[in-house]
Amino acid sequence: MHAVRLYTPDDRSAWDRFVIVSKNGTFLLMRDYMDYHADRFLDFSTLVLDRRGEPVALFPANRVDSRVVSHGGLSYGGMLSGASMTTSQSLDAFGAWLAFCKKAGIKEVLYKSIPPIYHRSPADEDKYALFYFGAELYRREVLSVVDLHCPMAPQERRRRGRAKAEKSGLRVEESTSLDSFWSILAENLASRHGVRPVHTLGEIQLLHSRFPRNIRLFGVFAGDRMCAGTLLYYALPVVHAQYIAAEAAARTDGALDLLFLTLIEAARGTARYFDFGNSNEQEGRRLNRGLADFKEGFGARAICHDFYRIDPVREPPLSSD
Fold first, then answer.
1. Which of 124, 152, 202, 271 is deepest in the core (most CB within 10 A)?
2. Residues 229-235: contacts with CB within 8 Å, 24+ apart?
3. CATH number of this structure's domain 3-140+305-310, picked from the four choices 3.40.50.1820, 3.30.70.270, 3.40.630.30, 3.40.50.2000
4. pLDDT tens-digit series, residues 74-116
């Protein structure tokens, strides 16, 4: 039998060590990242322990009344598995976690799986456990991903855009001017979608200070002025474009074509995938076709990111020996 208990600050070192050696953890699931917005989320992260008291799985999550979300402030959560995790062990760990949730009065679990491109070795044991315990797929998003080991040729219009940008004298450089990029990003989101960035400038500056090797800004410059850029998350084997923004004139001049063709080429040999993120709205029910077409123009193709709803009170509909 596995023991399950809530995370406490005393577990920080053990938690982070496990994330680093897990099959599917990324820096987003380390406590310095998870806890930057701890004031907005009631943490319900749990550790699943073996008989020696050593963790065999982690479940990053937060609680909202009688619901658990894994995790409401992150792109993904799910079950973090150690290198030795087997399918049988995953059923035991998952079952122990659901029993813990049930005992805590949880009526519903919203489970954000970790997309398979972030797995450092096969780690789909949780997918079977979800099926075994009767989870319902309620949301699916499409990530646009370039396979850097087997890249597809970019569309001709993307190559023409890069040539136009180079002819205009634009260049790509890594930058620490998060404030310059954030002003472009905020204007883009407000004018085109009526929303604000998920992170405030202060929050992203804090996260960048904690994870300078993982969070990096690349800008397109006209002279000394940034006119476009992207904030990349290095969660190897994946490089993920967390934010993308460009001034209107820079988009016309092919700045984003120059930017991403340059970065995709630079990522080869250091990462397996370049992830543009999703192009969905309404919990995956609507596809922004123009945005998806733009990303796929760089050779990206679809990887699904799945979200599940679980009733922890329900008995598992399957059986196992």
1. 271
2. 229/175, 229/181, 229/184, 229/259, 230/259, 230/260, 230/263, 231/178, 231/181, 231/204, 232/263, 233/27, 233/28, 234/271, 235/26, 235/27, 235/28, 235/118
3. 3.40.630.30
4. 999 999 999 999 999 999 999 999 999 999 999 999 999 999 9
